[in-house]
Amino acid sequence: MTFEAIRIAWRSLKANRLRSALAAAGIGIGIFSVVSVMTAISALDRTIETGLGFLGANTFQFAKYPGTVSISGDEQFQNRRNIDYQTYLAFARLIGNHADLICPKVFDRNVQAVYENRKTNPNLEICGTNEVFILANRFPIRAGRNLFPADVAFSRSVCLIGSAVAERLFPAADALGKTIRIDRRSYLVIGTFTKKGATFGENPDNRVIIPITTFLENYGSTNRTINIAVQARNQKVYEPTMGYAVGAFRQAHGLQPGDANNFEIYSNDSLLSEFRSIAKKVQLAALLLSAIALITAGVSIMNVMLVAVTERIREIGIRKSVGAKPYDIRFQFLVEALLLSLAGAVIGILLGVAAGNLLAGFLKAELVFPLGWSIICVLICSGVGLASGVYPAQEAASLDPVEALRSE
User: Fold this and answer.
1) CA geometry: angle 30, 34, 35, nearest 5 deg
2) Closest CA to 333 of 309, 315, 300
3) Is residue 160 classed as helix, strand or coil in its secondary structure?
4) Where in the chain are the domains?
5) Euclidean distance between the first and final Cα of the chain, in Å?
6) Helices 371-397 and 326-362 meet at what angle, rounded to 10?
7) What is the pTM for the complete model shown?
8) Burial (CB count <10 Å: 0-12, 13-18, 19+), residue 44
9) pLDDT tens digit string along 351-364?
10) CA 257, 262, 268: angle at the middle one, nearest 5?
11) What are the φ and ψ backbone dihedral angles of 227, each rounded to 5 degrees?
12) How many CA atoms lie within 13 A of 358 on its CB side?
């Protein structure tokens, strides 16, 4: 009987394609809004640790600005005092051996590297730092050597380049020992980095590393602020190290005991938590929007089924006259409402997964299929379909067969 009910329901929906498609579209829109958002967030969540992994394990960072984009912009942070190189030196002296690694970093973006007649795209990032950058940021060297403390102390014009820069400038030769030019200044290539790949629209392989003192001499220190990464020896001493480092940094930054912090401190965990907090708000908004769409779609399905009952009164009368019970008629119309709802759900899920993964692919995140959310959406749509079909099904089941047969 179930198979027969499905066959008749499918035939009825095919006979009114446009009406059925419009009703299913309402369900599809609601499901699309949920699944697309959940797919994108699931994909980003799987890649977030890699994408935010510019800080190594047991590492936290001091900065003038927050680690994530503020909705209100960065105007509220503009009046903060810059973290300059002298602050870094004072901080490194104060923290002493309480930390395993201390790494200053300052960046300039959209620069171009040139070697003979070959040029990179003007989208490189040049970073001024010291010799512990590759340890604090998990940036392994493929060939050559790391920066030496002497390179920083004497502001030498040396650099390490990412794999994309090396492939562009030296497609068939070794980059080591060659001199490249960036912003009309020459740098000797002393090392190349292992390829890491792009994440979240950023490509660490398009990076050039130079001594921080060389960077400040060439690009100036006025109106520049430095980020300082600190790595604890292990997870057990992470919290004590952070507490001591905050005190040392406040002193190096010239703050008095009663002054509020005029800097940010964050780690991979804090950035991940902030991302997930924002993601939950986006998910909630998507759920609210989809709930409105599903309620509207449920009303539409109910209307379609009521029209179907009106149009098929004679059919109902014939079926009852040959022995169909009210249960059979009720089941028939419930199956039709359920099929209509599930058709919209399938369309919404497929389009939502495609749209969510399209965004994830654009951000270089891992592609996913949100199986759990898809199952939830199917169950919700089943409930919406059944709830929308109960009243029309009851109306059909309660028709008197004699009166139904009289209908034209």
Assistant:
1) 115
2) 309
3) strand
4) 2-50+273-406, 59-266
5) 28
6) 150
7) 0.61
8) buried
9) 888 888 887 777 66
10) 110
11) -95, 140
12) 8
- Tokens matching residue 252: 């190096």
Return the structure tokens found at 169: 């400038």
User: How many CB atoms within 10 Å of residue 77?
Assistant: 16
Place of tokens 């990412």: 162
* DSSP summary character for residue 64: S
Q: Tell me the C-alpha distance between 262 and 87, whole Å.
A: 13
52 SS3 class: coil
Which conformational region is residue 308 in: left (phi greater than 0), alpha (psi within -120 to 50 degrees), or beta? alpha
Give the residue ranges of DSSP H helices in 52-147: 85-95, 133-136
For tokens 């980020």, the residue is 227
Q: Label residues 386-402 b or e (16+ Cβ within 10 Å = b).
A: bebbbebbebbbebeee
Q: Tell me the CB-side half-sphere exposure of residue 62, using CA atoms within 13 A.
A: 29
- Give the pLDDT confidence score for residue 45 in this predicted structure: 67
Structure tokens at 305: 């089924």
List, for residues 12-43, the tens digit of each pLDDT value: 777 677 777 777 787 888 888 788 888 877 77
Phi/psi region, residue 40 (left: phi>0; alpha: psi -120 to 50; beta: rest), is: alpha
Look at residues 163, 274, 204 and name the one whose alpha carbon lies nearest to residue 53: 204
Tell the residue number behind the tokens 């002493």, with chain if given: 96
Contacts of 356 (CB under 8 A, 6+ apart): 35, 36, 37, 38, 39, 40, 42, 43, 370
Indicate the pairing of strand 227-231 with strand 158-161.
unpaired
Please report where in the chains the tokens 């898809």 appear, as a residue.
Answer: 374
